[in-house]
Amino acid sequence: MQRFPIHLLTYNCGKSTPSNLDFKEKIKKSYGTKDDTEPKNLYVFGFQELDSILNSLDYNKINRDLINLADIIVDSLDEFFNSEYEFEVVEIQHSGSVGLIVVSPFATKIIRTQKSYVPTGYYFTSIKSSCGIRLQYQCDEGSDEYSPRVTEFTFVASHFNANEGQSYMIRRNQDFMTTLLGLEFIDGFSMIKPDTHCFIMGDFNYRASGGYTEDSLKTPKDPIDIHNLSNNNNSQYINEQVRLKDELFLLKKKGSTFWNFSEGDITFMPCYKFNKNTSNYNPKRIPSWCDRILYQSYDKNSKEVIHEYNSIPSLKQSDHIPVYLLIDVPYKPPANIISDGGYLVNPYDDGFTNNDDDDDENEGIGGRLQSREDIYLKLNGSNYYNYIRLLGSITDNIFRIALLSVFTNKGRASVFLLIALISLYKFYAG
């Protein structure tokens, strides 16, 4: 069976857009080894906290940041493959400080792209947000019987709400639901679409807390012991700790979020939270696997092949480190998980799980497919998320004006002038 090779990388930049030689060199680790002379069909990069909070509310500033970042990525790919292929930027999308860049050495095979976004921050701001790109890729002739002439992909980059505690953990589940339902593409579907591959990556902010106690919803039940993890730094032990401590794994196992999505085994050390420019974890936070890459589950008869799911600990510019996935997926898309009525359903009748080992162990990362007929996935003409986007735009501007008036000299001068004018008006009017 022919497969479609994809590279994905997610990186929380720590409020500073990567722009130096170190970033360009370090991300080459995610492309594979020098023996990998054939490029992937698609290179997808998701970013969070691309700039300061103030600048993240400036659409044009973030757009320029992403254009510059895309140039760095293309240069990096050209150098890695010795300029034997012509890498081109296919599409760029962003919302707030969350960005998505798609690059391909075969850009002429991409025949259509769509974009969407939805804010997930407090008061509908885009300080936390999700953005998506949907594209159609024209397949080579001579594909096998399972390979369509055109295959479609949806890529989503997200930044969910932060902090430790059960209420924040539940809010992250809500952010996923908002992303799942609120990304509205012009083809009439949200994040999930029949006969379409779907990937979601980003800083989901789930912590390695082990859950929370009944006595205190802010007290982690059994948080990760980073010293013990460091002393037993081997892939099997790390993966065991993920299954015991990681909120996202435990919530998926309960069927509380990320229904019908799978993830490779995590065998790398926690990617958050570091003291910047060091390899030292910040003792004020639970070291956690906040940065993740998941994909819609495939049929066990046409499984994906994961070549590497790893991090880049040598890139120390942020309090996060990048996480990347090298994966080959079948051309045949995942089974349809949308019923004729538009609801999320389980397309498999055999209790399918994505992995081959014990069911109980794999419900979390492999993801036992869930039937959720209370989740409507088609766009039904409702303007709810359009109102959310409108409100988000308004609150973004209000928040930006407030920040400008407090943190910039020009803003403070404008506020002083406004107060002076009001005072003069009251004096002469009185």
UniProtKB/TrEMBL annotation:
All copies of domain Inositol polyphosphate-related phosphatase, residue ranges: 2-335
Gene Ontology BP term (one): phosphatidylinositol dephosphorylation
Record's signal peptide: none
UniProt-listed Pfam families: Exo_endo_phos2
GO molecular function, one term: phosphatidylinositol-4,5-bisphosphate 5-phosphatase activity
Domain of life: Eukaryota
InterPro entries, per database record: Endo/exonu/phosph_ase_sf (IPR036691), IP5 (IPR046985), IPPc (IPR000300)
UniProt protein name: Unnamed protein product
Organism: Candida boidinii
